[in-house]
Known about the structure:
This protein is mainly alpha-helical. The chain has two domains: 10-67, no CATH class; 89-128, no CATH class. The chain is 44% helix and 9% strand. The protein is elongated, with a radius of gyration of 25 Å. 3% of the residues are buried.
Amino acid sequence: MRTLFVEQPVPQAVVSSWVNGKFHGEHNSAVKTLAGLRIWNEVHMPGGLRAWLLKNTFRVQLRIALLGGGKAWQGAVTGGTPDKYSKDVTFLDNYAKERWECVLHFMVGSTSGAADTVSSDTKQVLVKSGLMRRK
């Protein structure tokens, strides 16, 4: 992230100085991955210093992704016919409350029919997050 707005090479020694000593193994692995993906390119600065240069296309696109801007996606709706499946805020609020109530009923072992409508994926999330245990 530090190199996102730097448009010149950053010496590798400087980048390494940003890393806590006990995490140099993870740093080297990340650097190898970034170089392998050609996101960071190794270049030589005047005087023979080795440096990293963030690929310009990646830099520009990540800036757009993080800060907004750019062109709309090809599939973005820019007019034309309205979506016949469009939902309003009230509908979405009510639906979210209903689904949350189902999860709560399931978690407390309620015998109401609402507890039966919890998906297996939701059950797995509850178990893996430690919120519930299997008997």
